[in-house]
Amino acid sequence: MYKISHLENGLENIDxxxxxxxxSGFKDGANDLGFIRSNEPxxxxxxxxxxxxxxxxxRHFLNYPKNFKTNFILLNSKNANAMTGKxxxxxxxxxxxxxxxxxxLTNPIMSSTGVIGYRLKKEQIANSFSKFDLNSKDNNGVVxxxxxxxxxxxYTAYKVSLENGESFCVAGxxxxxxxxxxAMATMLCYILTDAxxxxxxxxxxxxxxxxxxxxxxxxxxDTSTNDTVMLLTSRKxxxxxxxxxxxxxxxxxxxxxxxxxxxxEGATKVVEFEILNxxxxxxxxxVAKALANSLLVKTxxxxxxxxxxxxxxxxxxxxxxxxxxxxxxxYDDVLIYDKNNKELDKIREExxxxxMKKSSYKISCDLGVGDAKFSAYGCDLGHKYxxxxxxxxx
Length: 394
What we know:
Heterotetramer of two alpha and two beta chains. By secondary structure, the chain is α+β, with helices and mostly antiparallel strands. It has two domains: 2-262, L-amino peptidase D-ALA esterase/amidase (4-Layer Sandwich); 270-384, ArgJ beta chain, C-terminal domain (Ubiquitin-like (UB roll), Roll), CATH 3.10.20. It has helices at residues 56-62, 85-99, 122-126, 139-146, 199-211, 242-262, 281-293, 295-303, 309-317, 346-356; strands at residues 2-7, 18-22, 33-48, 69-76, 109-112, 154-162, 167-175, 188-193, 228-233, 270-278, 328-331, 334-337, 360-366, 372-379. The strands form two sheets. Strands 1, 2, 3, 4, 5, 6, 7, 8 and 9 form a nine-stranded mixed β-sheet that branches. A five-stranded mixed β-sheet has the order 12-11-13-10-14.
């Protein structure tokens, strides 16, 4: 048995890591350069974007041998270092040569977010390394360093207390607000733990949790060049429980994923698309993601239009096994459609409108053709669903 308790102050609960951020002149009055480090090399698991045009930091990471250890992650915002060719990777190596004069590095890695297509202003970045307090534990400092269009800081933390009296902590930070699609998002995410977790368990827990969280959210249907989720362990405690660790990592990634949806560019509502009684797991996942990613459904959510037609149409267009006679659609507990109630009467329509006014609610679709279920998460696109400038951010 074990107990999971929420903690304040994010990464600051994790023993063995140091982190913080500074302003290097790319943002007005806010951090744009950050780090996560340890005195000893640590194991790292990572999941990256499915976009074929992977940014330079990801390609740099993948140049290392499998299961390498690192002791330093350099983070920057305002420039994605994407679509910059070999020079983009060379710029990263140049930065680490400079940083190695300040602190001894082991297989350092970098994560970037911002505008695509521009080389890093590496001299300006390097000139700010001396500002780092490499022994700081500043959760807000490192979170702010990776924020771009985010309207709020995204982080969470938990303590796992085991039956034998031992305990470990897991915490995560994340950035992201737009270009979010059910294939990760425009996001950087770092999950830190002091648990004595084996590397194979880290890989399994991360992949499973990403599949059930970040790969289930949608804002505007695009997938970025820089999407990154990393799991790091200092192993500073002797405590570990495989089931508890997997559960808390899933809990953290789901919380952070829902924060991404809540902070979607222009989004005003978060909606869970719950699929029940689908033919199989693959079809349940397929239709849930189709609903979460549908622009027609997003505009209906924004307009608070309870017409079930866009929901049914998207289900049918997804190609899954379905039948209009077995389909049941509900908004929270309000029946919207079944074979005996195909037209919304005034009472149900008014109740549906009330549901759709809420900042979060559930659209439940019972396909009635099997026993599989799955949930994906989406939002409306709101008044900001426009091109706000000529730069393509990642």
